[in-house]
Amino acid sequence: MKVALSILVVVPCFNEEEAITGVVSELNVVRDQHKLNLDVLAVNDCSTDGTLAVIRTLDCLYLDLPVNLGIGGAMQAGYRYAFRHGYAIAIQVDGDGQHPANELLKLIQPVLEDRADVVIGSRFLERVGFQSSVTRRLGIRYFRWLNQLLIRKTIHDSTSGFRAFNRRTIELVNRYYPDEYPEPEAIVQFGLNKLRIAEVPVVMRERQGGKSSITFIRSLYYMFKVTMGTLFVYIRLRKQ
């Protein structure tokens, strides 16, 4: 695949010193193999380990946020960069190594063919590779139900952070993007803005380093916070 459109891969990083080198290196290999017009932007979200020092040695662009904004704020910083620099496609790839770079082309294809404004990489369409814990899968089922209730659309992997946006979506998330745990909320935002959302099957793997910020206790907070955030997004956008 040879893609002339400019692509920015945004990699949010909070304490990812163990995995970030592999993530950026894999992306650059895919870029070179397929002759993609692709830049990698690592967003250091005020890490407390050596993430920033590692990023500075890598073949990538980077932002160093002065305060910790959480995953949503880090991603919006990347999307604003993509918007201001005129990228046609923005892709989110987690900094923990869960998203193999060779799956990236599957996300790009529906955007290139103008079949989707938002493409989500899903673990659950073909159920191959890492499937996450039972607790998380139950949470994902809950958010699938919530999305169906609010926007009448079934998204099987609503918490997936492996996503591609076209220019129309970049313009939208440049103005607003949910903070902290944005993925399920953003789906409602996209649905109410009449964006075309597609899922494609991808193979994910376990994180390649670091620790997840979502413990069992925090998962309860996550469910509550994201539910409230999703309902607020729904109410606010329905009034527009």
How do the strands and helices of this protein lay out in sequence?
Layout: E1 7-13, H1 20-33, E2 38-44, H2 51-55, E3 61-64, H3 70-84, E4 89-92, H4 104-112, E5 118-122, H5 134-151, E6 163-165, H6 167-175, H7 183-192, E7 197-201, H8 216-238
Parallel strand pairs: 1-2, 1-4, 2-3, 5-7
Antiparallel strand pairs: 4-6, 5-6
Helix pairs in contact: 3-6, 5-7, 5-8, 7-8
Pfam families: Glycos_transf_2
Domain Glycosyltransferase 2-like: 9-169
Protein name: Glycosyltransferase family 2 protein
Structure overview:
The chain is α/β, with parallel strands linked by helices. It has one domain: Spore Coat Polysaccharide Biosynthesis Protein SpsA, Chain A, CATH 3.90.550. The protein is 43% helix and 15% strand. It has eight helices and seven strands; from the N terminus they run βαβαβαβαβαβααβα. It has helices at residues 20-33, 51-55, 70-84, 104-112, 134-151, 167-175, 183-192, 216-238; strands at 7-13, 38-44, 61-64, 89-92, 118-122, 163-165, 197-201. The protein has a seven-stranded mixed beta sheet, with helices on both faces. The mean pLDDT is 90. This is Glycosyltransferase family 2 protein. One of its GO terms (molecular function) is transferase activity. The chain crosses the membrane at residues 220-237. Keywords: Membrane, Transferase, Transmembrane, Transmembrane helix.
